[in-house]
Fold this protein.
Amino acid sequence: MVTYSYKALTAEGVETKGVISAPDEYSAVAQIRQKCPIITSLTPIEKEKKQFDSLLNMEIGSPRIKTRALALMCSQFAITLKSGMPIGHALEMIAGQTEDKKLKKILETASEDVLGGSTLTSSFEKYPDAFPITFIETIKAGEVSGTLENSFQRMHKYYETSATNSEKIRGALTYPIFVVIIAVIVLIVIMVKVVPTLAQVFSSLGGELPLMTRIMIKTAEFFSKTWLAMLIILIALIVVWKVFVKTEKGMILEANLALTLPVIGKINVLNGASQFANTMSTMIGSGLTLNNAVSVTAKVMDNYLLQKDIEGMIGRIEEGKQLGECIKGCEYFPNTLKDMCAVGEETGELDKTLDVIGEYFANETERRVQQAITMLEPTLLVIMAIFAGFLVISIYLPMFTMYNLF
């Protein structure tokens, strides 16, 4: 059993606090929701002790199953269930085929549980750190409604799309990041090694050096004397920032910057809209009620402010209001998303509408990223050219005026 501290809102909107013991996070959430429909915070009190006790059998890497592996597994489940294979045997077969060691162990254990009479949901709920909440809730809805095959088909598309979009963005950012890293390394080597050597040569020749050369030498001397202190300050600032963004104010500031910074802000807004639409489409299409779909979607959002905006919709939906009306209160979501939610509800095809708009925003996100990189690459080249030009002139100028030094 794990002890959790929680904060929640009652049906009347009154904030309450408390402590509860449960086998896992999902059980704790279920117990709290019997009294309070909206949970704002849930923290395991024994988390530090649990982490210490698990050091002896700790595995390297994150316990979370990779998105691509989840997509493949969902595809395999959809195919095997469509063929009529029992779930327990399907788990055995998929476990034998998977290359992910963590997922393989989980599937083997789940197979034993299911063959022993457990449900698929209860088997996977034992691993809240390995699977995202979207996965667990979708399976639960699929088992209740008897549409498990359809649930796995939808999850395959959802995770495949998510993995593909992430890979595209990472791939697009690889080159500019590589250029920046190389430029920083070259700058450090020049300032710490090359320039001091040239300074000694120029000093031995005597005479007054040109202004540009003196600026370059003084800058190099400054870096040579203070690089360690600057490194310590940089590390300290990073640590302070990491600690600060764990607080409520820090999370709000970080999320606000992510949504309002030039260029980057627009990309994050589009990505958040895509994440919301795709998750909601998958949840609703798998049989979750609108209220539960919104609750699950809020938990998987990357941006804290978007998460809070979506959580604020839950109470209004419970009052009987429609999604299209509730989402209008979300400050950062594009109007296109808000309008399409209303259209989807009016036509009775909300999941299909969200699926289409989710794909649209995913494509827009990719286009904006490519556009930003197209602008960034020449900017980096110009900055590097200016620096290189300054460096070359600073080095060669004394040589051109060498006769003044003798």
The chain has a mean pLDDT of 83. The chain has three domains: 2-51, 67-131, 161-406.
